Amino acid sequence: MKIRPLADRILVKRLSSEEKTRGGIIIPDTAKEKPIEATVVAVGNGKLLKTGKVRPLEVKAGDRILFGKYSGNEVKLDGEEHLILREDEVLAVIH
Fold it and tell me: Which of 90, 82, 86 is nearest to 12 (CA)?
């Protein structure tokens, strides 16, 4: 299924979290925190400004980003968990 977010929204897929600690202890699923790092899958056209112009987004598909812990809306597409965020919820792009 193809999907394109609207306006300044971004579709991301969370990166998997670590299964073990550095000391070798296995972390059970119930104790894991959801990762705040994701890969951008698709982006919208841009943010509509008060002047009527559209400002393109700074992130693009394929970028790795950091976002807030409780940001966005979770959606399930083709059986996989994704997240839809606004551009202003993105904290940083990882290079």
Answer: 82
